Amino acid sequence: MQISSVEAIPLEHSLPDGHGLGDARNFGHARQTTLLRLETDTGLVGWGEAFAPGRIVAATVEELLVDDVVGMDPFAVESLATDSYTSQYHFGGDVFLQSAVSGIDIACWDIVGKAVDRPIYRLLGGTDCESLDAYASTMYYTEAERPPAAPIRDAVDAGFDAVKIKIGAGTDGDVERVRTAREILGDGGRLMVDMNGNYRPHQAIETARAIAEYGVDWIEEPVPPENASGYRDVTDAIDVPVAAGEAHYGRFAFKDLVDERAVDIVQPNLGRCGGLSEARLIAGMATTENVAVRPHVWNSAVGVAAAVQFAASVPDYPHSRNVPEPMLVEFDRSENPLREDLLETPIDPTGGEVDVPQGPGLGVSIDEDALDRYRLDE
C-alpha cells in the first residue's frame, strides 16, 4: 500500500463584525485551520489537521513534502517527523513545516488504523478506554459586551465540573475573573487559568499568589513561550503547577521544557507538535520524568478527534488503580462550526465527558457537504 495523493484543504469561519474573541493578547476574528486528505492506491483515505493557515500549509506541502509523501507506505508514518529535521535540515524547527507534518502524520495514522481495523489509541499502546473527562475552555475576552459569569454558567449547566478561563490582563482583573469562576463552579470543581504568555515573570508571580486562595489546578503559559528563563522563575516561585506547550513544536522544544523542569504539565497540540508520532515521543519523555501530559485543543473536529485518541493512549503513570488526577481533554466552548459541523457524528462533551471513538483510525467520518461550505479554495 502506498500513498497516491496528498491534498491540503484550507478552512475558515469568519466571526461577525464586533464579535471577535480571544485572550489577553488580542482578539481573533476568524477560525482557520487546514485539513490534510491522503489517499492510498488501495482506496483508503486518511484525514489529518495542520493547525496553521491553509495557503501556507498548502505551499509548504507542495514545496517541501509532497515528493517524499506520495509513494510512501503509510505504515512508515513514524519516519516523517524524523525526516522533517534531517531532509529539511534548515527548516526542521519551523512551525509551518511542523504543522504540515502534523497533518500528514495524523492522516497516515488514520489510514493505518483503517487498514488494521483498530482505533489509533490502541495502535499507540493504550489500553481499553471508553471515555475521558473533558474540561471547558471558556470565559474568553470578547469585543462584544458579555457578563464574564455567563460562559461559566453555561459550561456548568452543560455538565462540566472542570473549566479553564482566560486571564492575564492585570492582577486586579485576574482576581475578579477567577473569583467569579470559582463561585459559579463551586468548591469541588477543577479550575485552570490561561495567561497566554502576556506577562513578565514578576507579573505572573504576583497574579499566581493573588489567586491562590481560589484553588487553581494549573496556570497555563504565564510567560511567552520563548522566555525559557521566565518559566523557571515562575515555577520556582509559586506552588501552583505550570503548564505550556501549545506554542512549542517538535520533540526538542518539549525536551527542553521537561529537562529544565520549566513546567509541570506539557500540552502538545496534535496539529502543530509534529502529529501523533511526535506527541507519542513527547508523552514518553514527559512521563519518564513524571511530568503530566494534557493535550492542547483549539482545532477543528479532526484535531479534536486526534487529541482524544492521543489522550486515551497516555499512561496514568505513576498512578495505578487510584488516579487522583485523571487525564483531561480540552473542549473549546466558543462557537466554531469547523468543530461542530465537520463530522457526520460530532464529538459531544455534554456532561463533561467525551466518548473515545472505537472505530478504526480516528474513528470519525467527515461530512463532505460541511467541508465544502468552509473550504477557502472553492
TrEMBL record:
Its cofactor is Mg(2+). Pfam families: MR_MLE_C (PF13378), MR_MLE_N (PF02746). SMART domains: MR_MLE. One of its GO terms (molecular function) is magnesium ion binding. Gene3D superfamilies: Enolase-like C-terminal domain (3.20.20.120), Enolase-like, N-terminal domain (3.30.390.10). Residues 340-368 are annotated as: Disordered. GO terms for biological process: amino acid catabolic process; carbohydrate catabolic process. Residues 148-241 form the Mandelate racemase/muconate lactonizing enzyme C-terminal domain. Keywords: Magnesium, Metal-binding. InterPro entries: Enolase-like_C_sf, Enolase-like_N, Enolase_C-like, Mandel_Rmase/mucon_lact_enz_CS, Mandelate_racemase_C, Mandelate_racemase_N_dom, RHMD-like. This is Mandelate racemase/muconate lactonizing protein. It comes from Halorubrum lipolyticum DSM 21995.
